[in-house]
Amino acid sequence: MRNKKIDKTPIPNQQPSEAPLPISEEQVKLLESALRIKIMHALAQEALTSKQVAEKLQKTPGNIHYHIIKLFEGGLLELVGTEAVGGIIQKFYRSEATWFKAPNVSSLQFSPEDQIEHFTTRLTLAADELERFQTELKELITKWESEVTHGNEYGVDINIGRLQQFDDAIPEPGSES
């Protein structure tokens, strides 16, 4: 049996799109794991093998390989290259995105005893201020999603929506309201 030539073309390090990737309900379920989110971020920075991701996230290679295969089969990772090293075919994966748009608003459900914080506020923002706010919020979330952390898993659910405009004017005395 003859060795098949493997394409060793360098894998470009492109950043995934900033726009959220629309995903299905099945893909939402695949992303219901902090570890899988960390894998998506690791593979957004550069194309890596499952062993390289395991080293980066300080996890076992078998555990990471299992999750990478599930993400790949679910259409959230792409195989961008292969390389033969010492008789082993290394597969390099890349994440399609790190921000996602799910079909429903939220898949997180917290029981009252598990809810840690709930924030509600109202902001007055011009279009450029809203964009800056969203960018800063995404940078904060990305920082924590990408970091190697230990402990319990927590869900974070943030909704931003424009509220209906109401006339804030106080009626003049004697006028109809």
What are the salient characteristics of this protein?
33% helix; 177 residues; elongated; 4 strands; two-stranded parallel ribbon; two-stranded antiparallel sheet; 5 helices; 12% strand; Arc Repressor Mutant, subunit A; alpha+beta; disordered N terminus
How would you characterize this protein structure?
This protein has 177 residues and is α+β, with helices and mostly antiparallel strands. Helices cover 33% and strands 12% of the residues. The chain has a domain of 119 residues: Orthogonal Bundle (Arc Repressor Mutant, subunit A), CATH 1.10.10. The strands form two sheets. Strands 1-4 form a two-stranded parallel sheet. The protein is elongated.
Compose a concise summary of this entry.
By secondary structure, this protein is α+β, with helices and mostly antiparallel strands.
